[in-house]
Amino acid sequence: MFYIEEFINHLKMNQYSYSTLQAYRKDLGHFEAYLAYNGIKDAMNISKATVMDYLKALNGKAHPTKAYCNQVTRIIKYLHYLEEEGIIFLSPLRDYSIPKHQTNNYPVIGKVEMEKILMDTKTFDPLCIKGKAIIELAYSSALRPREVYELKIPNIDFKQGLLFIEQSKNKKDRVVPVGRNALAWIEKYLKEVRPRYIKDKSHSYVFINHKTGERLTVWGVRWAIQETLRRSRIKPIKPYSLRVTSATHLLLNGMNIVYISKLLGHSSIKTTRGYLHVDLKQLKQEIKTKHPRVRMEKHLNNREKNHEI
């Protein structure tokens, strides 16, 4: 017996999302099938050699992919659960380090290019007004695409310039600031565009599908952004790049990484570091101008020169 359903129920009690539970069930189902094929019929008989052979068969590539890293993480958590419940004595992967994958899926948009997007985006039709509002919002508050399409009108405080992000990743709520330009475009969309297309007035989602009147999906956010930029003759970007770009630009402008981490809704600064794609030359220049130790050395050098005079 492998206790996979018991583990899934454990995750459910910890408020894992439906899609995440399905991913766990799928990956652990494949793992169970592999174990059965190798004559292992009980969790107590899972050996480290067998698990490592399975992981080796899973990857088969020079560099680990995101999917592979997720699969490894799920198996590690499952084996840890078995250990915690006393089903096995020690997890075979107790000291195994989760591999890191390198991804360029969400490149940082340069400052010049981002300024062009913000300044040159056309807003001559309803779709472009929606796209412009989404771009301004996502860049201003470093939001995930999901946080954009799940944003509700009552969760925007126009006076205070705050957003209440409800039940985002890992079921966490948070409050984040939002800029005046973003608020102005959201207000324009709500007044001039949304009323023309809303068909079910019982829901309060900000951004809606202009055909159905329903809440946007992740694909709807992508389409609104990319089609708006295409009509403005600007190179298309990925929605998640706006979040990564916002975080990176804040760092380059001197914002403390602790505050950036809080803005992004991360529980660990290590996660935030993975978002911050900073060019090495830029980083060196930032350290030269902003590191307190460098400033202190300049101050001491100036004092010594003054004494010499």
Write structural notes for this entry:
With 309 residues, the protein is mainly alpha-helical. It folds into 2 domains: 4-84, DNA polymerase, domain 1, CATH 1.10.150; 111-278, Orthogonal Bundle (hpI Integrase, Chain A), CATH 1.10.443. It has 15 helices and 3 strands. The protein has helices at residues 4-13, 18-37, 48-59, 66-84, 111-120, 126-141, 145-149, 180-192, 194-197, 218-231, 239-252, 257-264, 269-275, 280-290, 292-308, and strands spanning 156-157, 162-165, 174-177. It has a 3-stranded antiparallel β-sheet, with no helix packed on it. The longest helix is centred in the N-terminal third of the chain and has 20 residues, at 18-37. The chain starts with a helix and ends with a helix.
Summarize the structure.
The chain has helices at residues 4-13, 18-37, 48-59, 66-84, 111-120, 126-141, 145-149, 180-192, 194-197, 218-231, 239-252, 257-264, 269-275, 280-290, 292-308; strands spanning 156-157, 162-165, 174-177. With 309 residues, the protein is mainly alpha-helical.
